[in-house]
From TrEMBL, chains A, B:
<feature type="binding site">
    <location>
        <position position="44"/>
    </location>
    <ligand>
        <name>Mg(2+)</name>
    </ligand>
</feature>
<feature type="binding site">
    <location>
        <position position="120"/>
    </location>
    <ligand>
        <name>Mg(2+)</name>
    </ligand>
</feature>
<keyword id="KW-0507">mRNA processing</keyword>
<keyword id="KW-0479">Metal-binding</keyword>
<keyword id="KW-0540">Nuclease</keyword>
<feature type="binding site">
    <location>
        <position position="117"/>
    </location>
    <ligand>
        <name>Mg(2+)</name>
    </ligand>
</feature>
<dbReference type="InterPro" id="IPR036389">
    <property type="entry name" value="RNase_III_sf"/>
</dbReference>
<feature type="domain" description="DRBM">
    <location>
        <begin position="157"/>
        <end position="226"/>
    </location>
</feature>
<dbReference type="Pfam" id="PF00035">
    <property type="entry name" value="dsrm"/>
</dbReference>
<keyword id="KW-0255">Endonuclease</keyword>
<keyword id="KW-0694">RNA-binding</keyword>
<keyword id="KW-0819">tRNA processing</keyword>
<keyword id="KW-0698">rRNA processing</keyword>
<comment type="function">
    <text>Digests double-stranded RNA. Involved in the processing of primary rRNA transcript to yield the immediate precursors to the large and small rRNAs (23S and 16S). Processes some mRNAs, and tRNAs when they are encoded in the rRNA operon. Processes pre-crRNA and tracrRNA of type II CRISPR loci if present in the organism.</text>
</comment>
<comment type="similarity">
    <text>Belongs to the ribonuclease III family.</text>
</comment>
<keyword id="KW-0460">Magnesium</keyword>
<feature type="domain" description="RNase III">
    <location>
        <begin position="3"/>
        <end position="131"/>
    </location>
</feature>
Length: 226, 226
């Protein structure tokens, strides 16, 4: 296997090739070797946490206006199997995997779960070989273009979205009306209606007025087909 | 609020006190302050990933015989709400929280979810203030004693456990018998029986013989009341 070629695609030359080889070893191959080869499963465990941390850190520091819920959603989209499989394909990871014959013949080189897991294992391999900063650089090489392409949105901010739609017509008037408030101080529940001129176009509830308004705006957007 | 006292419990003196104060600010307090105070929710998001990474890294490097499944289970036990709440109590975190009056009056200072979230936020505060190595030191101060007390086991190894029980009586003989094998190469399924002398005491199935044997041993242990 020409690991040199793959290292060039990774942009990282391994001091300890064992990390790289293990990262590329699927459990089907390790099983066939009956304990003589280690599979990439432990590396995948570690790589998953390195990826989660690097992406959380990046989002936290660069999307300072995002509330926690939006950070969580955006991170989930960047570290999921689909995303990792896409990253793996960018470096032709499938070509370099060590698979059992059976797995190879049944399309293992293009199977999403195998590619995503191996991508995480490669992250761990780089982290173990060269430290967190190298791993971070490697991860951001894939994550940044995806962030650029998708322009992560503060998912939650339905009020702003609704406002932007409505104000295209200056005669329309949007208003949020508090219709209920219940529960003790520490466990309040608010209900809110959003009115367009004098029509109710959405209702929402939540633990704060702000949350209830967001929910109402969300319902309005849904009703309007957004 | 005497943050100096709390910093002593943390073992970290903050360069930027804002991180510490935000980590201690519950959303109920921030909501009451109507946007003038930031809650600890974003920090909790970041702290959760720092904690997950540090624990994964530690387990990976110190439990080199553990397969991925055991690493995952042990990590889950160390980063769960129950564990984090326990860590928070060790540093009297509840006493230093900024809560709304309502939350305070309804026992917020001892509520498990509030304490666990704030503990994760404190981790992020230390990470942002002083870097990963400080955060790692802080986390391991809580995690290591817990690992020592619980002696994490390779949960999966039922065969070893069964063997140790059986060999207490040298006349007993344990044997694993392959009873079935089906499916194409890449998706095989094996079934195994474990025999004690000539009695079947457990049956198991899995994608490899080893896995099927483990499952059979597990069933035997359960039948024997372990």
């Amino acid at each position: 296997m020409d690991y040199r070629e793959f290292e060039e695609k990774l942009g990282h030359r391994f001091h300890n090739k064992k990390y790289l080889i293990t990262a590329l070893t699927h459990s089907s191959y390790a099983n066939e070797a009956k304990g003589k080869e280690e599979s990439n499963e432990r590396l995948e465990f570690l790589g998953d946490s390195v990826l989660g941390f690097v992406v959380a850190d990046y989002l936290f520091k660069n999307y300072t206006q995002f509330p926690e819920g939006d950070l969580t959603k955006n991170r989930a989209a960047l570290v999921c199997e689909k995303a990792c499989c896409g990253f793996a394909k960018q470096i032709d990871l499938g070509n370099y995997l060590r698979l059992s014959h059976g797995e190879q013949n049944s399309g293992g080189r293009t199977r999403s779960s195998i590619l995503a897991d191996a991508f995480e294992a490669v992250i761990a391999a780089i982290y173990l070989d060269a430290g967190m900063e190298e791993a971070r650089k490697f991860i951001l090489r894939f994550v940044l273009p995806m962030l650029k392409a998708h322009k992560p949105k503060a998912f939650k901010d339905y009020k702003t979205a609704l406002q932007e739609i409505i104000q295209q017509n200056p005669e329309e008037h949007l208003e949020y009306v508090l219709t209920g408030e219940s529960g003790p101080d520490h466990d309040k529940h608010f209900t809110v209606e959003v009115h367009l001129n004098s029509n109710v176009i959405g209702k929402g509830g939540g633990r704060s007025k702000k949350e209830a308004e967001q929910q109402a705006a969300r319902e309005a957007l849904e009703l309007m087909g957004y």
